[in-house]
Structures are given as structure tokens and as C-alpha cells.
Specification:
Layout lengths: L1 H11 L8 H4 L19 E8 L2 E3 L4 E8 L3 E4 L12 E4 L5 E8 L4 E11 L5 E5 L13 E6 L3 H4 L1 E3 L2 E2 L1 H11 L6 E6 L14 H14 L1 E7 L6 H15 L3 E6 L20 H18 L5 E6 L6 H4 L2 H8 L3 E11 L31 H10 L4 E9 L11 H17 L3 E5 L13 E8 L2 E9 L1 H12 L5 E3 L1 E5 L3 E7 L5 E7 L6 E6 L6 E7 L10 E2 L19 E3 L5 E6 L3 E7 L2
Parallel strand pairs: 2-7, 8-25, 9-12, 9-18, 12-13, 13-14, 14-15, 15-16, 16-17, 17-18
Antiparallel strand pairs: 1-3, 3-5, 4-6, 6-7, 8-22, 10-11, 19-20, 21-23, 23-24, 24-30, 25-29, 26-27, 26-28, 26-30
Length: 589
């Protein structure tokens, strides 16, 4: 018996007492190679550091950590769980803040903390929000995009079965915050259907219809006016109505007809004036409306430049005299001039002139203010159907820099505050020569007629559009804001039907950074989502709420999204604001 037990022990290579072997039977047949798994253990936080540990308000500190064995990571004073593979995060505290890292797994959790000390100074701005008095409604489809009908193939797709999924994803990023279908303005092709017979064909229109299904888009589409052939415009109208049906909101008559004389597109040349335009309009409009299936026009689509002030001076009479034919009144706006070799200073988009004070102020005797007033008097919406930073393709080093993101949010809010019903940021799609002002553009390869699209640029302007969409979400209205500052800082606030207040702070100052004191009584916790870049002239390195599109191959942001948490102290929220940055402060009721 003892010999048999010894043999069993040796066979199983066991180190326990012989009595235990009775319960092991024959060690499960594993023999000497069987090993037992180590017992599960708690996660390990090897390090958790802040660099630097002391900052002044408006400066950042980078939290770094090394964690093993965790299935989840949580960090106090920051929203959202961190990816277990993450190793760092940038914070911008306005007051001395202790951050607690919690690493968890099935066994339990462990904690580690680090404190960032913030030196106090006089706030660089103070903001008071009157949440009880919403002022100006913001149209549900306020934020839109636009491009040329001729760019459909390079931007959207060639057919309903060969779409550009990256473009669709970039639109979906915007429409996740939208209150209504995204309104896309498709500029009329510049020459006649005879010259470009495929522009309005069924295949291309099917791509637009598919975009509506995939991303919830509606359209305002132009027909040819520049060639002065009524039958061309009516034929294109019929194709649009057939191909787009209920997702077509309006027919745009031409594109910037006030420039036809200057550009040599009318025989009168520079003598082409408003009376000539009106005579042509009154031939085209009834013919188009007769075949439009009840759709009305988007007009007059003027460029809005000072050289055509004679056209704008007649806006009141045009709108009042043709209101029954119109669905929306539109004009265009470019803040700077890049035509014929003209240039703007590198920091131009940080200036107030680029928002309200350039050639097209929001109020004026014959310009945008008159458009708006004329439309409102007859109950029509007025929209900036084409908007971007600098005309004639933009200016490299200005239009494609981070300053364009700050400008875009500021001018969009300025127009909303003025009562404009919406803006359409213009995008272009030349695969060989991208315009500087486009929010994004693509390249593609083509095999057997099928295009495969790739991202070439997702420019800072797109980040500004995305943060603006967040700021006006959930059918928000503008809320009154009082701002006191000596720096180049702007503040815009909204309030939604749930009482949530969103305050957008834009620091366009190249040197001022620090704390902003925000007064809002009887509200709860606030979160801060930041938009930053290395400098105002950066073209990459843009970060929105912890995420970037740098390196994205499919139009989704890279990195973990997060916001910083701020608590009120005596009804005042203190938020740090770095120079050349934006912060969306969301405050729950």
C-alpha cells in the first residue's frame, strides 16, 4: 500500500501530503506538466504623475500613468471612462485640483491621486448669463454645407451604389447634434447642360438621394442661369424634381448673377445692372415654377460684394415684388479677399473685421442688413447660402489654419444673433488642387468605374463646424450674455428646452490666457469641452474634446472623448481659457 502511494505521488509530482492524493485520483492525466493558474489580483498603478504640478490659470498640465491588469479606468473631475490602453490626458484646471485615478477589474479596484496646483490671478473675462430670457431662436437646420453640383462625383459619390463613405461619416458627425435634416446647397453648374450633359443625370441625382437616406440630407439645388437659356433651366428643374422629389427644398436660380457683367458672362459687360438681371429673372422664374411641382425658388443668390452694390440696393423691391415665388432669400459672404493676387494678414481671421466690419457688415444701408429686413417683412427666411473665410479659393496659411475654426463659430453665431435662418459653409473637391478654405477634401482611385475615396484634408474649419453644432443642439435658442474683458474674447450662449445652458467661449487673443468667471445662479455641474491647437496658424494637431481627425481614414475622430468637470462656487463657475482656443461650457439645470 505504501509503495503504491509513493508511485502515485511520484507520477503526479505532487508536493502535498499523501492524504491529499486520494482526492486527486490520477491528477487528471496531466502528469508532471500540469500547472495551476495564479490567483487573480488587483490592478497595479505603477505611476500617476502631473507635468507640471503647478500652473497658472489657462495653462495645461499633462497627466500620465502606467497601469496594468485593469479592465476599466476612471478619473475624477473628468467625464467618461478612459480606454485601458490610454496613458495620458491633458487638463486645464482653473483652480487647484486633485485628480483621483481608479483602476478596476473583477477582483476590485485601486486608487492613486495627483494634485495640480493653480496660481490665482485676476480673471481675464467675466460672463453673466441670463438663462431666464432666451432671445433669438436658432433655425433647426441653421448649420449647412454647400458645394458645386459639378463636384458631386468627387465629394459625395458617383451613384447610389458607389458613395463616398468618408463624406457621409463627416456629415453624420455633424447631424448627430442636428435638430432637422442637414440642408445642403448644390451650386448650379456654371455652363449649360449641353456642355455638361451628365451633371443632372439620374445616376448623379441617385447619389444625392442616397445621401439623404444615409445622412438625412435635404437640398437646395441650382439650375443654369448664366447661359441665358430658359429651356436649359426648365429641363434641369424637371430632372431635379424627378430625381430628388421630397428632399428638394428649393430651386436656386443661377449663382452670383450680380457678377455676370463683371465676369463677361453677359453681353452688356460692366453695364449689366439690376434692371437687366430683373428682366432675365422675370423670364426664367415663371417657366421654372411651371415645371417645379410646387417648389419655389431660392434667390437672388447675389455675391454680396461692394462692386455690385447697385444690385443690393434693390433688394427690398425684389423681395417684396416676388415673395410669392420665393422659398428662401439668399446671399453669399466671404470675409476676406483673395482674388487677383490679393492677400490678408496671417491673423486676419482672429480680427473683429473678419466677423462684423468687413465689406459685408451684418447691418448696413444696402448690404446684409437690408437683405434680412426685406425677407423678414414678407415672412421669408434669409440664409447665407455660401459662406467661407476668403474668396477665390481661400488663402493658404489663413483659410486652412486653426484661426478659421474660431472664425467660423464666431461668424455663425453672429448671423444667428442677427436673425439669419442659416449658413452653408462652402466645400470644394478638386482632387488635384484643393482650395484652402474647404472644410475637407478627398482623393480617389478608380477601377472599372468604381471610385475608392481617401481623405486628403480634414481642415480646422471642420472642427469649428462640429463644435458649433454641439453648441446649438436640441433646438436651442440664444440666451443673453454679458461679457466684460480687455482681451480678444467672445462669448455666445444658448439654452435648450431642457434648460441646459451651453456657453461658447472663443479666445482669439494671441497672448491672453487665464480664468473666466461665469455667473449663472441656481444651476448644477458644468462640463468643459475644449478645442485647441498648437497655434492659430496650425493646420494639424487640432484637438476637440480629446479627439482629433489627424490620422483618421474613415472620418471618425481618433482618441477618447472627454470633458473636464467644473462645480459652481456661490453661483460662479471658474473656467480656465488658454490663448487661441475655444471652450464649450455645458451647464445642467
Amino acid at each position: 500500500m505504501i509503495v503504491q502511494m509513493q508511485k502515485l505521488i511520484r507520477a503526479c509530482s505532487c508536493v502535498v501530503s499523501p492524504l491529499c492524493m486520494c482526492f486527486l485520483v490520477s491528477c487528471g492525466g496531466g502528469g508532471a506538466n500540469q500547472t495551476s493558474s495564479p490567483p487573480p489580483s488587483l490592478p497595479v498603478i505603477s505611476s500617476f504623475l502631473a507635468t507640471p504640478t503647478a500652473v497658472s490659470a489657462g495653462r495645461t498640465s499633462t497627466l500620465t500613468w502606467q497601469v496594468s491588469g485593469a479592465s476599466s479606468l476612471q478619473l475624477t473631475n473628468v467625464t467618461n471612462s478612459l480606454a485601458v490602453t490610454s496613458t495620458s490626458l491633458v487638463v486645464t484646471p482653473a483652480v487647484t485640483t486633485t485628480y483621483m485615478m481608479t483602476a478596476s477589474n473583477a477582483v476590485g479596484s485601486v486608487d492613486s491621486s495627483v494634485t495640480v496646483n493653480v496660481s490665482q490671478s485676476v480673471p481675464i473675462a467675466s460672463v453673466t448669463i441670463n438663462a431666464g430670457e432666451a432671445t433669438q431662436p436658432i433655425a433647426p437646420d441653421f448649420l449647412g454645407i454647400g458645394h458645386s453640383m459639378g463636384d458631386t462625383l468627387s465629394l459625395i459619390g458617383t451613384s447610389s451604389t458607389n458613395m463616398n463613405p468618408i463624406y457621409e461619416q463627416l456629415l453624420k458627425n455633424l447631424t448627430q447634434y442636428a435638430n432637422a435634416p442637414l440642408l445642403i446647397r448644390e451650386e448650379a453648374e456654371g455652363s449649360s447642360g449641353a456642355d455638361n450633359p451628365n451633371v443632372y443625370n439620374a445616376q448623379r441625382l441617385a447619389a444625392l438621394a442616397q445621401l439623404s437616406k444615409d445622412a438625412g440630407a435635404h437640398f437646395m439645388v441650382g439650375v443654369d442661369f448664366v447661359d441665358d437659356v430658359v429651356s436649359t433651366a426648365t429641363a434641369e428643374t424637371q430632372e431635379l424634381v424627378t430625381g430628388l422629389g421630397g428632399i428638394l427644398d428649393a430651386i436656386e436660380l443661377g449663382d452670383e448673377p450680380d457678377l455676370y457683367g463683371i465676369n463677361g458672362e453677359r453681353p452688356e459687360g460692366a453695364a449689366w445692372d439690376y434692371a437687366d438681371y430683373l428682366a432675365d429673372y422675370e423670364q426664367f422664374a415663371p417657366a421654372i415654377l411651371a415645371v417645379s411641382g410646387g417648389l419655389k425658388l431660392e434667390a437672388p443668390v447675389f455675391s454680396g460684394v461692394n462692386a455690385t452694390a447697385g444690385f443690393m440696393a434693390n433688394l427690398n423691391s425684389f423681395v417684396s415684388g416676388h415673395a410669392s415665388q420665393l422659398a428662401v432669400v439668399t446671399a453669399h459672404h466671404y470675409s476676406g479677399n483673395g482674388c487677383n493676387g490679393a492677400t490678408e494678414p496671417p491673423d486676419y481671421l482672429l480680427t473683429e473685421a473678419a466677423v462684423d466690419g468687413d465689406t459685408q457688415p451684418l447691418t448696413g444701408p444696402i448690404e446684409i442688413g437690408q437683405y434680412l429686413t426685406a425677407a423678414q417683412q414678407v415672412g421669408l427666411p434669409f440664409r447665407i447660402g455660401e459662406l467661407n473665410s476668403i474668396n477665390c479659393g481661400g488663402q493658404l496659411g489663413v483659410s486652412n489654419t486653426f484661426s478659421s475654426a474660431l472664425w467660423a463659430m464666431d461668424i455663425a453665431f453672429a448671423y444667428a444673433n442677427a436673425g439669419v435662418s442659416g449658413v452653408n459653409f462652402f466645400a470644394t473637391a478638386d482632387p488635384n488642387n484643393a482650395d484652402a478654405y474647404t472644410p475637407f477634401d478627398f482623393t480617389y482611385t478608380e477601377t472599372n468605374g468604381v471610385r475608392t475615396y481617401s481623405i486628403r484634408n480634414i481642415n480646422p474649419l471642420y472642427y469649428g463646424m462640429l463644435l458649433f453644432a454641439q453648441a446649438v443642439q436640441n433646438k436651442a435658442q440664444l440666451a443673453p450674455v454679458s461679457l466684460a474683458t480687455n482681451a480678444n474674447i467672445k462669448a455666445w450662449a444658448t439654452i435648450d428646452p431642457n434648460g441646459t445652458v451651453r456657453l461658447l467661449l472663443l479666445n482669439k487673443d494671441e497672448s491672453a490666457s487665464g480664468a473666466v468667471a461665469i455667473s449663472l445662479p441656481s444651476y448644477g455641474q458644468a462640463t468643459v469641452t475644449r478645442l485647441t491647437a498648437p497655434s492659430y496658424f496650425s493646420t494639424t494637431g487640432v484637438i476637440l474634446g480629446g479627439q482629433t481627425f489627424d490620422g483618421s481614414v474613415n472620418g471618425t475622430p481618433q482618441g477618447s472623448a472627454y470633458s473636464e468637470i467644473v462645480q459652481a462656487n456661490s453661483d460662479t463657475y471658474t473656467v480656465a481659457l488658454p490663448s487661441i482656443s475655444a471652450a464649450l461650457v455645458t451647464i445642467q439645470k
